[in-house]
Amino acid sequence: EPEVTQTPSHQVTQMGQEVILRCVPISNHLYFYWYRQILGQKVEFLVSFYNNEISEKSEIFDDQFSVERPDGSNFTLKIRSTKLEDSAMYFCASREAGTRYEQYFGPGTRLTVT
Amino acid sequence: DQQVKQNSPSLSVQEGRISILNCDYTNSMFDYFLWYKKYPAEGPTFLISISSIKDKNEDGRFTVFLNKSAKHLSLHIVPSQPGDSAVYFCAANSDQTGANNLFFGTGTRLTVIP
């Protein structure tokens, strides 16, 4: 069964460093998302991406964040200068066109900022 | 902004009995609701959904009920099995409030006791 994959599973970085989280969405999906979950809190939407551009973003997704689909398979989230409060699980999700809102999630990347 | 609320952080049920997980929402624009299940170290897995034009949707042991006037939905699992032990997230969306992102509740940890 096709699945969303994410790498790395765990990333430890120092405050102020740049990190790139990688995702490979399901191959026939056209909509891509990043969510995050701070420990003990709810899953929060960060950004959605369609047709090679951001379609929607939350207030969390500030200038420190960017997304890119550098090739036909990868979808990346970059945090330019990490802060302690960026420590969270980051989930990538994707869905196919015409399937309303049934997003399929990857296993997540745990980001720890020290 | 807690547009989707799950007021019970945890629930314990005996194997074979019914599990009922509840969810409330405040945004009357929401018209599509989903339940996701999450195991530790994995991403959320889509379980079942319901459109606001329905008040019930059933899939095997899982049934979701929607009460639009009360802005309340519930997930029933019958019979409950030990493998159902996980965190269950309620999520909602609407074409009116942003066609792409999901609003999640904080989750309910279900423990099914053998």
Q: How is this structure best described in words?
A:
The complex is a heterodimer of chains A (about 110) and B (about 110). Helix content of chain A is about 0%, strand content about 50%. With about 110 residues, chain A is mainly β. In chain A, strands 2, 4, 5, 6, 9, 10 and 11 form a seven-stranded mixed β-sheet that branches. Chain A has a four-stranded antiparallel β-sheet with strand order 1-3-8-7, with no helix packed on it. The mean pLDDT of chain A is about 90. By secondary structure, chain B is mainly beta. Helix content of chain B is about 0%, strand content about 55%. Chain B has no helices and eleven strands. Chain B has strands at about 5, 10-15, 20-25, 30-40, 45-50, 55-60, 60-65, 70-75, 85-95, 105, 110-114. In chain B, the strands form two sheets. In chain B, strands 2, 4, 5, 9, 10 and 11 form a six-stranded mixed β-sheet that branches. A five-stranded antiparallel β-sheet of chain B has the order 1-3-8-7-6, with no helix packed on it. In chain B, a hairpin with a 2-residue loop joins strand 6 (about 55-60) and strand 7. The N and C termini of chain B lie far apart (about 35 Å). The mean pLDDT of chain B is about 90. The interface of A and B includes residues 31 and 45 of A.
What is the β-strand count of chain B? 11
Count of helical stretches of chain A: 0
The major β-sheet of chain A equals:
7 strands, mixed
Spell out the helices and strands of chain B N to C: EEEEEEEEEEE
* SSE string of chain A, helices as H and strands as E: EEEEEEEEEEE
